[in-house]
Fold this protein.
Amino acid sequence: MTGRKCYVLIPGAGGVPWHWHRVAAELRRHGHDVIAADLPNDDPSAGLAEYADAVVRAVGDRPGVVLVAHSLGAFTAPLVCGRIPVERMVLVAAMVPAPGEPPGDWWENTGHSALMAERERLDGGPPDENVLFYHDVPPELAAEAASRERVQSGGPFGQPWPLARWPEVPTSFLLCRDDRLFPATWLRGLVRERLGIEPEEMDGGHLPLLARPRELAERVMRLSGG
């Protein structure tokens, strides 16, 4: 896979296209087409099917599609693969669904809930969300990012993930070594178990799209042949 790609950037929970703006600029600088998907994630009537619909509509008939999904976005990206031609998926600090698993059950099923409960016990209370998500994002950028977040609706969380297996689309996983939401040691095991691949690793926390956009864009392009 070489030449111009269409990178489709799928946000995580409550995310909006703006959250990808730094990565989008880097990809465009290299001559690629970029779509930052706008999901109906604040609509309580919208579920995973509607999220996939929004991505498919945004892509249209563009060729050379590479889906780049952050966090909760990994529940949406595979659903798109059955509807349009996709060259590759790149998952970034992402949740990895199992067949039939509602996103709301993922936390308990993967051991994440127990992991965070133990951290709270050791720390004497719940983590500061700003520290959890934005610890390595420049303060002014973190404040703007937080102000642009939508309140993520519960629409998709009770719905079973509808695929019986992972799509037959080449898939890469980018793990962030300093991720405080999805700790690296735990996430490595989950990726190996559920995807059967070895994750690629980079420095940074849960939001490399804001903290390390150039490095993230370069890794995505390399993984996708762009």
User: Anything to note?
Assistant: The radius of gyration is 16 Å. The chain has a mean pLDDT of 95.
